[in-house]
Design brief:
CATH architecture: Alpha-Beta Complex
Family: Belongs to the H-rev107 family.
Radius of gyration: 17 Å
Shape: globular
Distance between the termini: 24 Å
Organism: Xenopus tropicalis
CATH superfamily: endopeptidase domain like (from Nostoc punctiforme)
Strand content: 15-25%
GO cellular component, one term: cytoplasm
Structural class: alpha+beta
Protein name: Phospholipase A and acyltransferase 4-like
GO molecular function, one term: phospholipase A1 activity
Strand order of the largest sheet: 4-3-2-1-5
């Protein structure tokens, strides 16, 4: 299979995976997890197509489409079951009042997740630093899903 066909198949497979896993549109106050090369970047959706995130230690507001680029993303409020979030108005206001500020942290990679969880839950719940979520586990689950789906459909992908 040619490289472009392989990339197209992978993109279609990711789309099918996200559809099957009920990817939803973000609502103000939702946490957005963006899959980057080797790590996840986090942002807080503030409405109007905008998200607030921390990059290189500085909090910025940006169009979600620009922030995400070509990377995969999802709404990830998975910590809600164990940690009640603040109200959506409080989350959005807290995120927006941080724009332009510098974040202090020992781990550059964790800036964005620490920022996002502090804004949503009022405290630092960064799973990348604590080790409760790993990209390799997500990819393993995704590849298992694709393998099963591919075999079940005799080598063809369907969005149905």
């Amino acid at each position: 299979m040619a490289a472009s066909q392989s990339q197209g198949a992978a993109a279609l497979a990711w789309y099918v995976y996200m559809k099957k896993n009920d990817q939803k549109k973000p609502k103000p106050g939702d946490l957005i997890e963006i899959e980057r090369d080797g790590f996840s970047e986090w942002a807080v959706y503030v409405g109007g197509g905008k998200a607030v995130h921390c990059t290189k230690g500085i909090v910025e507001e940006e169009d979600l489409d620009t922030l995400v680029g070509r990377d995969q993303w999802r709404v990830n409020n998975s910590l809600d079951k164990d940690h009640p979030p603040k109200g959506k108005e409080d989350i959005v206001a807290s995120a927006k009042e941080q724009v332009g500020k510098k974040m202090a942290s020992n781990l550059q990679l964790s800036h964005c997740e620490r920022f996002a969880t502090r804004v949503r839950y009022g405290r630092d719940l960064a799973s990348q630093v604590q080790g409760s979520v790993s990209l390799s586990q997500k990819w393993k689950k995704f590849l298992q899903y694709i393998t099963q789906h591919f075999i079940r459909n005799q080598g063809s992908y369907s969005c149905a």
